[in-house]
Amino acid sequence: MLENIEFANPQFFWLLLLLPLALLWYFFKRKEETAALKISSIKGFSDSGFLPKLKPLLFLLRLLALAAIIMALARPQTEDISTRTKTTKGIDIVMAIDVSSSMLARDLKPNRLSALKEVAGDFIRKRPNDRIGLVAYAGESYTKTPITSDKSIVLNALREITYGQLNDGTAIGMGLATSVNRLKESKAISKVIILLTDGVNNSGFIEPQTAADLAVEFGIKTYTIGLGTNGNALSPIAYNRDGSFRYGMRQVEIDENLLEEIAEVTGGKYFRATNNESLEDIYDEINKLEKTEIEEFKYYKYEEKFRPWVLLAGALLILEWFFRITLFRSFI
What is the pTM of this model? Predict the structure, then answer.
């Protein structure tokens, strides 16, 4: 009966201290009201039965009724809480992904591109209240998915990104410019680009600095990530006769100065990922840096539970009154 119950007026429970005092009062009062008769023998008296011994039951019923009344005064109630959330400051994010042949290097497991897709997928799932789009670039760039709140579309598009869909090369300026173009009309409070590359800008007709200036003009923050181990990595170096890649050790070259400059002028931050774990940590840090403000509304519904206690008190008092005028009438 008391499961999941809260009390609106718990201070009334102090009145329960009166119950043991009432018991003491009844005990001493009953002794005073009992007449004493001294005789030499009780053989001439017959046993009147056990009913008089049950007379204290009347007082016990009254005490129980009083306890039920105190419980009702404490106002037991159940609480039902419903919530509704509203995004007050959403973020629009474009993830610009390098899909050049060097992204097949195996310094990350199983390779850079596969490792990135797995981590980026986790990042997308952690942003349920934001709109996210995808841009892929190599020697040129294109929009894989415009910004959308439908995460299933974005995740499916991410899985479809592979090497070979674009001419090879690394057009960082093109990838950044295409991302800016996707966000420039956005009405979001915060607009963010996460640009990842594992090389140096060697293709495209838009300079990275020019694309960065466009990002600044439209108020778009850019986080840049340089992907690749320090030193040499097992990378594609030529084609075999069957069209597959031949792998060999190649020096990892990332234009970190350029990536740092893009991040700095746009108000973002540059990161370097040298393995799977550090890449995951970087996306976790960006997730923490870019927080979406959520407004939560709580609705409280209370259901009063004092009525059963009032009815119980009434029933006990009626029962006490009934016993008093029937069974115990001749002993009162």
Answer: 0.65
